[in-house]
Amino acid sequence: MSSTPITKETYLEWYKSMLLMRKFEEKAGQLYGQQKIRGFCHLYIGQEAVVAGAMSVLRKEDSMITAYRDHAHALAKGMSANAAMAELFGKVTGCSKGKGGSMHFFDKENNFAGGHGIVGGQIPLGAGLAFAEKYNGTDNVCVCYMGDGAVRQGSLNETFNMAMLWKLPVIFVCENNGYAMGTSVKRTTNMIDIYKMGLGFDMPSAPVDGMDVVAVHNAMDEAVERARKGDGPTFLEIRTYRYKGHSMSDPAKYRTKEELEQYKERDPIAAVKHAILENKYVDQQWFDQEEAEVKRIVDEAVKFAEESEYPNPEELYTDVYVQQDYPYVMD
């Protein structure tokens, strides 16, 4: 059981947080279809409980790092919808000044370290963030997310070994949505229980139902508590599902409609709403108000993004090196 209690307020915050993630992503998908958002765009629809269940046990001081399916993580960590949407539009008011796009969100104020386009590239960086916290003597933790495809990168094994050796305060989370880019886990490995990869390093490891926000909360709470006490890392394989393709260019023909509908019947947002109503925490009017508020936030974010300016060409030479007057060859 979780040492962080699950209260009425927890459920209400889960619903509000996941609803914002869902509606933001749905709007992003629409705008991509209208070619107002360009480049790569990986939506999080269906996986919201994985982040929401973590945030209910984390503090603002804790860091988070993930791969390129990063919009929901950034919003949950505290990034404004305005800054997130403007980044998708490539505008200077975006969280990365319009230079990162969908895959490279970043928010230092909220300790969100990205958004990384290289598959598995964030795994050693997550351990590095945790090392910094231990070096500085804090009890802050880092949550490092990855997809099921990223666990095939060799850097995972090197990072797991160092994290256990040094007892780093990091929680490694594999968001296993079953298909990596478009290939079933069953076609890439003989051992489909990904969490067992951590056992070879004596790392506490476990599978988690990623469609159940309570299960995620409980598993994350145990892992975070272990890390804060100095007992080292945890590896969680959180089994979830994305309703959309790998990216906006993916028609997802590698799975059946029946499989998709089976997962939609276990929708995490609908499950939380059911629990709230069953416990009579609020009435339907509250849900109507929250849905209207989320719609307002998303609509305002789109307006903000559309009215913002694109970066000046000179921005190409900023935020690359710490040295402000770095002598670029500009001929």
- Oligomer state equals single chain
Q: What does the radius of gyration come to?
A: 20 Å
Strands of the largest sheet, in order across it?
Answer: 1-2-3-5-4
Helix content: 40-55%
Provide the low-confidence segments as ranges: none
The portion of residues forming beta strands comes to 5-15%
Structural class from helices and strands? alpha/beta
The first-to-last residue Cα distance is 63 Å
What is the number of beta strands?
A: 5
Provide a count of the helices. Answer: 10
The 3D shape can be described as globular
Mind summarizing the main beta sheet? 5 strands, parallel
Q: Give the helices and strands as they follow along the chain.
A: HHEHHHEHEEHEHHH
Average of pLDDT: 96
Report on this model:
- The chain has helices at residues 8-33, 48-55, 71-77, 81-88, 122-135, 154-165, 213-228, 257-264, 268-278, 284-307, and strands at residues 63-65, 142-147, 170-176, 205-209, 234-239.
- The chain has 331 residues and is of the alpha/beta class.
- Helix 6 (154-165) links the parallel strand 2 (142-147) and strand 3 (170-176).
- Strands 1-2-3-5-4 form a five-stranded parallel beta sheet, sandwiched between helices.
- The longest helix has 26 residues, at 8-33.
- 40% of the residues lie in helices and 8% in strands.
- The protein starts with 7 loop residues before the first helix and ends in a 24-residue tail after the last helix.
